[in-house]
Amino acid sequence: QVQVVESGGDSVQPGGSLTLSCTVSGLSFRNYVMGWYRQAPGKQRELVAQILESGMTNYAESVKVRFAIMTNNPENTIYLQMNSLKPEDTAVYYCNFQGFWGQGTQVTVSS
């Protein structure tokens, strides 16, 4: 059974930091493509960051420099380190691993 589970969402003030985690079970951690997406109220879901098994990464322009995606293969976990958070980063953040979606985790950036 495939499970993709996100965690780490919270409410923070502008300029703050958060680290989101995505733990995957039931799938091989080989030849993967994995992405963090987000969806704000009234907006379409958008790609935030993507990582391949090769280590190649891709970021949305709006989060470059501020966010970093990384993996911990022994633990089948992918992280999204988010720094210098802005109110416009407020959204539900979803993990997608090989086409499987998690349930999402809420990130709210507000003073």
Protein topology:
Elements: E1 3-7, E2 11-12, E3 18-25, E4 33-39, E5 46-52, E6 57-59, E7 67-72, E8 77-82, E9 91-97, E10 100-101, E11 105-109
Parallel strand pairs: 2-11
Antiparallel strand pairs: 1-3, 3-8, 4-5, 4-9, 5-6, 7-8, 9-10, 9-11
What does this structure look like?
The protein is mainly beta. 0% of the residues lie in helices and 52% in strands. The chain contains no helices and 11 strands. The protein has strands spanning 3-7, 11-12, 18-25, 33-39, 46-52, 57-59, 67-72, 77-82, 91-97, 100-101, 105-109. The strands form 2 sheets. Strands 2, 4, 5, 6, 9, 10 and 11 form a 7-stranded mixed β-sheet that branches. A 4-stranded antiparallel β-sheet has the order 1-3-8-7, with no helix packed on it. The mean pLDDT is 93.
Features:
111 residues, mainly beta, 4-stranded antiparallel beta sheet, 0% helix, 52% strand
